[in-house]
């Protein structure tokens, strides 16, 4: 039914607009979908993304954080320290091929 | 007066009762009003777009769950936060490319998954797909639920009143730029 489809779109869109601080909530996502969407939209060349797409990126980002943190921790342990430092994260980035995209972006003060 | 698409409802193919038609019209009007509100609203922007990151609190929660008894320096957290933003841009860009190549107008979940594969994050696919299934199931449940709620019989007079109210509101909304159909 056309009406039902329309409602689904509105419902999802409104949920995206309201509560920027509201967490993904569904299926245990930690990141707020509205914020992820805003980050995506900061790229002017980007086309429209479906709600599902935002959802998948949010999940992938969480997995990314997991990988990065766990990798960094390996360096912390190797050095016998108890606090994960920025250096540990740097080293992880350098060690993993897929993270090469972060190389240029690491020089934030 | 009830608004019905057919002047004489019994001649409609669907044979809708006036009440059902009224409910549907009310729904449609809510839909229109909501869309117009969304289109006209300007969400407050506390942060400039180029400083946008995921919220620190969300990230701190994740780190806490991953390494419950380990300290993580603030600088390290800051770095990870910024890496996330870069990651989102990277994956979105790639997905945008894939979407363009397929000559589609909207980036969908499959485009994102494909871009993860392409960028060397293919091992995220399984988890992402699993969670996507959950999301779809929940959305479907919500839609079924909202249909059931509508049948809980808001009295006809109330629906009529709401319809009149919405009509009045819609005629008051700015129409500049909208073509007459």
TrEMBL record, chain A:
Cellular component per GO, a single term: epsilon DNA polymerase complex
Record keywords: Nucleus
Domain Transcription factor CBF/NF-Y/archaeal histone, chain residue ranges per copy: 30-91
Transmembrane region(s): none
Subcellular location per the Swiss-Prot or TrEMBL entry: Nucleus
Biological process annotations from GO: DNA-templated DNA replication
GO MF terms, alphabetically ordered: protein heterodimerization activity
Region listing for Disordered, in residue ranges: 1-26
PANTHER family according to UniProt: DNA POLYMERASE EPSILON SUBUNIT 4 (PTHR10252:SF79), HISTONE-LIKE TRANSCRIPTION FACTOR CCAAT-RELATED (PTHR10252)
Protein name per the record: Transcription factor CBF/NF-Y/archaeal histone domain-containing protein
Taxonomic source organism: Scylla paramamosain (Mud crab)
TrEMBL record, chain B:
Single GO biological process annotation from the record: negative regulation of transcription by RNA polymerase II
Keyword Nucleus: yes
Organism superkingdom: Eukaryota
Domain Transcription factor CBF/NF-Y/archaeal histone: 53-115
Cell location: Nucleus
InterPro entries given in the database record: CBFA_NFYB_domain, Histone-fold, Ncb2
CDD domains: HFD_Dr1
Keywords carried by this UniProt record: Nucleus
Claim: Lipid metabolism is one of the keywords in the record: no
Molecular function per GO: protein heterodimerization activity; RNA polymerase II general transcription initiation factor activity; TBP-class protein binding
GO cellular component: negative cofactor 2 complex
Main location: nucleus
Family: Belongs to the NC2 beta/DR1 family.
Protein name listed in UniProt: Protein Dr1
Protein source organism: Scylla paramamosain (Mud crab)
């Amino acid at each position: 039914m056309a009406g039902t489809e329309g409602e689904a779109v509105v419902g999802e869109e409104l949920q995206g607009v309201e509560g920027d601080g509201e967490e993904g909530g569904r299926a245990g996502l930690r990141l707020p979908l509205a914020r992820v969407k805003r980050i995506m939209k900061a790229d002017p060349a980007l086309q429209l993304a479906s709600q599902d797409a935002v959802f998948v990126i949010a999940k992938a980002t969480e997995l990314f954080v997991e990988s990065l943190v766990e990798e960094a921790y390996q360096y912390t342990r190797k050095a016998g320290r108890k606090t994960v430092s920025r250096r540990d994260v740097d080293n992880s980035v350098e060690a993993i091929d897929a993270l090469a995209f972060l190389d240029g972006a690491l020089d934030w003060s | 007066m009830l608004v019905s698409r057919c002047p004489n409802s019994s001649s409609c193919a669907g044979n809708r009762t006036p009440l059902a038609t009224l409910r549907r019209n009310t729904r449609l009007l809510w839909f229109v009003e909501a869309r117009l509100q969304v289109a006209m609203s300007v969400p407050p922007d506390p942060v400039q777009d180029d400083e946008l990151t995921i919220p620190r609190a969300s990230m701190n929660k994740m780190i806490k769950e991953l390494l419950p008894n380990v300290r993580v320096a603030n600088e390290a957290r800051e770095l990870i936060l910024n890496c996330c933003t870069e990651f989102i841009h990277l994956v979105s860009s790639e997905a945008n490319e894939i979407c363009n190549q397929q000559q589609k107008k909207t980036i969908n979940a499959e485009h994102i998954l494909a871009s993860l594969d392409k960028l060397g994050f293919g091992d995220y696919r399984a988890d992402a797909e699993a969670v996507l299934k959950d999301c779809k199931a929940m959305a479907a449940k919500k839609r079924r639920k909202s249909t059931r709620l509508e049948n809980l019989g808001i009295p006809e007079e109330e629906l009529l009143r709401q319809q009149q109210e919405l009509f009045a509101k819609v005629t008051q909304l700015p129409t500049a730029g909208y073509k007459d159909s």
